[in-house]
Amino acid sequence: PTDFSLTGRSANRVVILGAGIAGLATAYELGKAGYDCTILEALDRVGGRNWTIRGGDRVLELNHSFQVAKFSDGIYFNAGPTRLAQWMVTMDYCRELGVDLEIFTNSNAQAYIYHQHVGAPVRWRTAKADMYGYVAELLSRATDAGALDAALTAQDKERLIAFLSSFGAVGNKASGFRYTGTPRRGYSVNPGAGDQPGTVLGPVPSLSEVLASGVGQWFEFEHGYEQAMLMFHPVGGMDMIPRAFAARIGPERILLRSKVTKITNLQDGVEVEYRDHYGTTRKISADLCVAAMPPHILAKTAHNLGAEVQAALATPTVVNAGKIGLEYNRRWWELDEDIYGGITATDLDLTQILYPSYGYGSARGLVVGYYNFDAQANAYAALTSPERERRAIEQGIKIHGAKYRDELATSVSVAWNLQPNIEGAWVSWPSRQGAYQLLNKPAGHVYFAGDWLSHMIAWQSGALESARKVVMGLHQRVMNAN
Ligand code: PHE
């Protein structure tokens, strides 16, 4: 736990630009120490990219396309962030804010890997059993034949072979360490009662077929520090986090539909111009400002922070991502395929399919039919929402069959590059020198905060850590001035 508290209080006025996770955390932490915070938010909701879409919600895109979510009661679609790792500070904020968590299933042996040239989906468990099995066979044989004698003592060899035997479920020396399949692959007929031992899934592909299938490329995913299980998500939708922040901050301090149009650093403070709810231009003055907007949006906002800051804001590259939420009339992934959460990885342009980690066994459910990046996300972004649905369904049928179309109730898609005032999923820096360093320091009375100023880009924890860093720096400065 990394609870955060500031020593000393201040009544200074701080204007915060953006009610995304960084802006909300800034207001929340400064508020605890007495600061008088106001948040300007261009959208009509808090959270920024932390966006949960439910029935009745509207999705407006920059090309003027318009969707109204027709999801059933109890169904939600996390269009942005979807998972929290246990080590992330986001977990601590959930505890502090009273946001209930449940497990988010990021890897599931029962989900699939689908590669077009293979033609049929393969369960992760089957792919792993075969790949691990053949690797263990080859390494056991090479070790036993003395090919690795330069690297291994006699005892090392024995221990390595023992490990490989359990790791890959391969035969003993007498059988040439052969991998011939294992129940780890799964069953075509499950084990049952009495004299029903079940039928292990077959046939076992050859080593060459397993290598050619390319399934092994996905295995690293669940080994990553950020993506390894267990992972978590808030009960009821990711936006429980911004909602809880907003409730603690006080909704009266958050001006929605208030788009920042100009940031002016002054001798003794800061002045921010914005267009309010009614289209009227207004000004707000403060002692300090925290700009918690995306860098590419700040770069399009008038300011007097200088050419170097402007160039720095325009330095990172914007990355696009997209998602579609598909509500189904029937939880066929559970009923027909025994999949309760997790992700199917593919080489289709939908990239991946995510099964819901909530509502198991209930009547309806929401599958994320694509979550893709870069070129694949751009391809879907260029389509109308009905076209996106059609394309996602056509692709998904290859894995799940006709029910993937027939049992669909409704869908909503989000292309992050087309979201007003956000215009991207996240950014990437060419380097952590120069521009990144500059924006990690205040420009006069203006500080910058966001995941884009952290080493956890595209994670809420990056936004939270950045906000804390700015809050500490700002508070130190105010305390030193007193
Ligand atoms: N955090 C986002 C996710 O988990 C984006 C991301 C993807 C970040 C992959 C890093 C690596 O989907």
TrEMBL record:
<dbReference type="Pfam" id="PF01593">
    <property type="entry name" value="Amino_oxidase"/>
</dbReference>
<dbReference type="GO" id="GO:0009063">
    <property type="term" value="P:amino acid catabolic process"/>
</dbReference>
<feature type="domain" description="Amine oxidase">
    <location>
        <begin position="21"/>
        <end position="470"/>
    </location>
</feature>
<dbReference type="InterPro" id="IPR002937">
    <property type="entry name" value="Amino_oxidase"/>
</dbReference>
<protein>
    <submittedName>
        <fullName>FAD-binding protein</fullName>
    </submittedName>
</protein>
<keyword id="KW-0732">Signal</keyword>
<dbReference type="InterPro" id="IPR036188">
    <property type="entry name" value="FAD/NAD-bd_sf"/>
</dbReference>
<dbReference type="InterPro" id="IPR050281">
    <property type="entry name" value="Flavin_monoamine_oxidase"/>
</dbReference>
<dbReference type="GO" id="GO:0001716">
    <property type="term" value="F:L-amino-acid oxidase activity"/>
</dbReference>
